[in-house]
Write the structure tokens for this entry.
Amino acid sequence: MKTINIFTSIISLVLLGAGVLCTGCTSEQRYSESVGTFYTLEEAYEAGFLTRDDLMSIAYYHNGGRQNNESVMAEDYAPKPKVPKELSEEISLKIRNTAAYDFRNDESVNAPKAVADDFKIIEYCGTYNHCVAIMMTDNYTGYTGALHTDIISEISFCYNGGNEIKIWKQN
């Protein structure tokens, strides 16, 4: 009987310790400071974060090939490979936390309780010079269905709504 009580006490202590250690453990982490910065494609290009070749690769992945860029991409054009091929959960969380931080601190958005889970990365177009090219959706923004094309350095980026590619750079 004494052995059972000792065993029960040990199990209880282990479970209590695990509970204490995991308090606050979630995939969600709120940052008091931004861990990154978002740029438009044009801003990132003009700041020198992206090269023209980077823009061509991003357009290729986003547009699904050479379409609308036949004049700047030869038939045998091959974009830079996506490295990494897919975003890690760690980088994805940092990007989504940056978006949540920005929304919490932007009075025009009115999202004081925004968290990373309110944001979803819907497209990854590669990482270039530590800059991640993505498209995201969120629980706060309504996007139009209007087709539009952005042209940067003679390279076309075609969109089927108001949402556009963002460039995220870690601080």
In short: The first helix runs from residue 2 to 22.
